[in-house]
Amino acid sequence: MSVNKDIKRITTHTLLKMKETGEKISMLTAYDFSFGRIIDEAGIDIILVGDSASNVMAGHETTLPITLDQMIYHAQSVVRGVKRCLIVVDLPFGSYQGNSKEALASAIRIMKETGGHAIKMEGGEEITEGIKRIISAGVPVMGHLGLTPQSIYKFGTYQVRAKEEAEADKLKKDALILQEAGCFALVLEKIPAELAKEVSESLSIPTIGIGAGNFCDGQVLVMHDMLGINHEFKPRFLRQYLNLYEEVSTAVKQYISDVKSGDFPSEKEQY
Q1: List of residues 6+ apart from 151 with CB closer than 8 A
Q2: What is d(CA 84, CA 36) in angstroms, rounded to the nearest whole number?
């Protein structure tokens, strides 16, 4: 797809400038061509091709089952629809935790096969060797601290993280370690707003919050949640901008009714 010369692409450098000037960063997930195009054309700064595809696209209970091949498929689809925003692709569970060589191989596959611009990895100090190796190969990395869904069976709950002092101290330390390792931004998920404020102010790289309050440099939501497609999921941090579940359901029921009654297709809708 040819890129319009007038369209200024968002880069990792753009995001650093946005933090410096105090402009908030907007980020949403997308998993296919059609929604990728809509979200990009609406003016979003970052699209995350999230491993949340495991939940909202494939119906799994957790993010763990999605494979690297499946993430590559979703990212390829999104890239074809996008002309402007930065596209970040999640490295899925099991594709980087084992060792840094495997992490690099996974990141290179995503960059070569999808056309995405960066990858995201969950975890702190324990994965820095992999992060450094990936960045040294020229691949930008976004970090992710707080609630890390790939570790859900270790935590055993999706409750707010880092409320206790020891975990909060580790998170602050990990944030600085990830910045030092070369991450260009950091997702902070489901942590107290005051802690997110402290972390955001201690870093020169931008923070993107989800359930982490208003002091982060940007915000991210899962597209299916904010559009109300995933209508059962209503945590405190979610603002639902549409009730697409109801709207689609109403449209489908009307279509069924029109087909059954013989109203569709009408004379104007045939050849």
Answers
A1: 122, 123
A2: 11
176: its two tokens: 């600085």
**C-beta separation of 117 from 160 below 8 A:** no
Give catalytic residues, as residue numbers: 189
Consecutive H or E run containing 258: helix 244-261
3-state helix/strand/coil string of 94-136: CCCCCCHHHHHHHHHHHHHHHCCCEEECCECHHHHHHHHHHHH
Write the DSSP string, 2-60: PPPTT-----HHHHHHHHHHTPPEEEEE--SHHHHHHHHHHT-SEEEE-TTHHHHTT--
The answer for residues whose C-beta is within 8 angstroms of residue 82's C-beta and 6 or more apart is 36, 37, 40, 47
Integer Cα distance of 236 and 123 in angstroms: 24
In contact, 144 and 122? CB cutoff 8 Å: yes
Report DSSP state, residue 85. S
pLDDT digits (tens, 9 = 90+) for 158-185: 889 999 999 999 999 999 999 999 999 9
For residue 154, give both structure tokens. Answer: 């270790």
d(CA 96, CA 101): 8
Over residues 70-107, the pLDDT tens digits come to: 999 999 999 999 999 999 999 999 999 989 999 999 99
Give φ, ψ of 145 to 5 degrees: -125, 170
